[in-house]
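User: Here's a structure from my thesis project, written as structure tokens. My advisor, Dr. K., wants to see whether a designed sequence matches the one we expressed. Can you design one independently, without my sequence as a hint?
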């Protein structure tokens, strides 16, 4: 159920917020206006929230984010927020539409990206790094898969995957990273890289396909 809206500037500082939203967050409008939305966002959801907001296109379609807020009384409040960016550059605004989350749905989807998938992605990256160290990275060319795994992990580990960070983690030249980011964008596996925050995130299609692959079991070898 929709409960209200908010307006923030390009930096995420709240300029206006409906009273029902403020009440649900256990705060007053006066207290919230002038705060960054990150100031009330649960620490584990900050990187994912930044990534989603950074990927918003000017006057483009909205992004739906399920995120946890820290209530004024210290509790955790989970809401669905649909965010759009209006205007250009530093003069743009972020418009949020807040909706409550059905408790049964919240329980059923509490682990949207299951820990076992995070661990498998981490293990696969570890195997790739060990392989490159032992055999030489120059004889392998699965850069795109390594980048997809790393971008996927960035949300789980609460850090922002920028092109320089990806290059550093995977020991790749910046030009190689940029080239493969263009390819991944062309395949609709990542969102456009935001020019202000330089954040890279998987698109809904990218998340779905990476998670499907992570859930695949290796074929058993015949005895």
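Assistant: Designed independently from the structure alone:
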């Amino acid at each position: 159920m929709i409960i209200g809206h908010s307006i923030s500037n390009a930096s995420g500082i709240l300029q206006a917020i409906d009273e029902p939203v403020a009440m649900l967050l256990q705060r007053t409008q006066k207290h919230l206006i002038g705060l960054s939305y990150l100031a009330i966002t649960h620490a584990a959801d900050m990187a994912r929230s930044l990534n989603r907001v950074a990927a918003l296109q000017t006057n483009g379609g909205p992004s739906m984010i399920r995120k946890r807020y820290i209530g004024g009384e210290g509790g955790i409040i989970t809401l669905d927020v649909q965010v759009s960016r209006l205007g250009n550059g530093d003069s743009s605004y972020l418009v949020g539409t807040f909706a409550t989350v059905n408790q049964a749905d919240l329980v059923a989807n509490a682990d949207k990206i299951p820990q076992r998938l995070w661990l498998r992605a981490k293990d696969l990256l570890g195997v790739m790094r060990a392989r490159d160290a032992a055999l030489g990275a120059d004889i392998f060319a699965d850069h795109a898969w390594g980048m997809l795994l790393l971008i996927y992990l960035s949300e789980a580990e609460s850090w922002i995957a920028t092109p320089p960070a990806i290059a550093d983690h995977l020991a790749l030249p910046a030009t190689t990273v940029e080239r493969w980011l263009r390819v991944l964008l062309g395949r609709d596996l990542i969102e456009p890289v935001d020019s202000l925050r330089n954040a890279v995130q998987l698109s809904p299609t990218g998340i779905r396909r990476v998670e499907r692959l992570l859930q695949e079991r290796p074929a058993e070898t015949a005895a």
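When you compare it with your expressed construct, this may help: The chain is about 40% helix and 15% strand.
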